[in-house]
Structure formats: structure tokens, C-alpha cells
Amino acid sequence: MNSLEKLVYMANQIARNLETEGDKAADTTAAHIVAFWDPRMKSMILSHLDAGGEGLSPAARAALGKVRAAADA
């Protein structure tokens, strides 16, 4: 598993674990990624999202969209 595959796995895992929060899941997942992921990790996963985000779950995509919005703000 390469670095990008690990990031996709981790984003999906975090999103899956926080799905129990319902409507807050994407916000909570995004907050976790913003708080705990290294800037290089965030840059790599956001570039992957911009390139189509292959392998990302819908929940992870929603969260990363919020991470992207926060980064652009």
C-alpha cells in the first residue's frame, strides 16, 4: 500500500467511525483531519480529491469537501 492508498484508507476509516454522528459526521471528520493530519497529508488527499478521489467513500468525500472549503477560506 503506497502513501496515497494509506491516506484514502485512513480518511474512509475516520468517516466510517464517525457516521454515527449523523448530520454532524462530515463536520466532525473534517475537524479531525484539519486538527491531526500533517499539512503534507492534507495536501496529498485534497489533490487526490481534485483528481476524482478514486476509492474515497461518499462520507469521506463530504468531509474532504469541508476541509477544502476551510483551506480556501
Annotation keywords:
73 residues, mainly alpha, 4 helices
Could you please describe the fold and organization of this structure?
This protein is an all-alpha fold and 73 residues long. It has one domain (3-72). It contains four helices and no strands. It has helices spanning 3-18, 25-36, 39-50, 58-72. Helix 1 crosses helix 4 (58-72) and helix 3 (39-50) packs across helix 4 (58-72). It starts with a helix and ends with a helix. The mean pLDDT is 96. Keywords: Oxidoreductase. GO terms for molecular function: formate dehydrogenase (NAD+) activity. It is an enzyme of class 1 (oxidoreductase).
- Can you tell me the number of structural domains? 1
Summarize model confidence as the mean pLDDT: 96
Assess the beta-strand content as a share of residues: under 5%
Strand-and-helix sequence, N→C? HHHH
SS elements, strand count: 0
Whole-angstrom Rg? 11 Å
Structural class estimated from helices and strands: mainly alpha
What is the helix content?
over 70%
Coarse shape: globular
Distance between the termini: 33 Å
Number of helices: 4
Q: How does the major sheet shape up? A: none
Show unreliable segments: none
Q: Which SSEs are present, and which pair or pack?
A:
Elements: H1 3-18, H2 25-36, H3 39-50, H4 58-72
Helix pairs in contact: 1-2, 1-4, 2-4, 3-4
In short:
By secondary structure, this protein is mainly alpha-helical.
